[in-house]
Amino acid sequence: MAELDEVLRVDELRTYFYTQEGTVRAVDGASFAVKRGQVLGIVGESGCGKSVAAQSILRIVPPPGRIVGGQIIYHRQVAADGASNLSEMLNLTEMHPRGQEMRSIRGSEISMVFQEPMTSLDPVYTVGDQIMEAITLHQNVDRREARKRAIEMLEQVGMPRPGEIVDNYPHQLSGGMRQRVMIAIALSCHPSLLIADEPTTALDVTTEAQILDLMRNLQKQTGTAIVYITHNLGVIAEMCDDVAVMYLGKVVEQADVDSIFYDPKHPYTQALLRSIPRIGQARKRLEPIKGIVPDPYAIPQGCPFWPRCIHAMPGLCDHDQPEYVPIAPGHSVRCHLFRQEAM
Ligand code: SF4
Fold it and tell me: Is-above-0.85 flag for pTM?
């Protein structure tokens, strides 16, 4: 048993893909924590390993990928009475991906909203059937009660005419409505943790704003912790309490959202922020990050960011991997520049 406010802690997670061309270290020593009832944003360029980290938490990494190291600790809440907040620690990396224990957690206590709702929903079943399947799989209710709850869930996610929509097929709905259905499925069992993997990428900006509003409001109402994965720093600023910045399979910095935006420490986080427009800086030129993301089969030795880093120290950064060290309460950085500070 543990007494703390974390719902999930990922510690030095390593998920590799063994292909004929070589080994892709998609997640290579990622560490981050998600506090109960808060939103953690995971941000990074395409291919940085953020989606594979999410798949690893749910133990749905597709072959030939597998978890080869590290721990994923889920703190299951067993009592909360105001004075105490007891939880039991479950190591998800030790569970069989298709075992009974993991299946009872996946979709019920930890659920996920995927990028593209059209490919995540089954086209031959009505949306009501798909919400009811999630409910009857994890809760002891009959079909009549499950249908009633499915309609309630559709209403909760702001669907117009939920009593009618429940009998529609996915192709009869717009992209925004399909994503609302995905959120209804994910929240139907009242999870402790919701993982949202770029849920608004396939939507136009107006619908994206509506879905972000919906998720923020539902998060406040239900208290569900969220891991929000995105490459969009604007969405991070709007949605998140804490932020983990990933680069080539590693978390290079984690802190609260204000520290990341107003006092970023890692050169990669600073470069990301210099590359996006900000209100009030209309006349300032945006600075792209120099170079390109390295080939995943040939990750540079030492700090993987050194070929693109304006602060790189030859002989150190291109040779030794920096440690991930705390530099302030709740603020950790993986960079040689902060080695002395952490000592
Ligand atoms: Fe740049 Fe060196 Fe820090 Fe890497 S370790 S981010 S190369 S200064």
Answer: yes
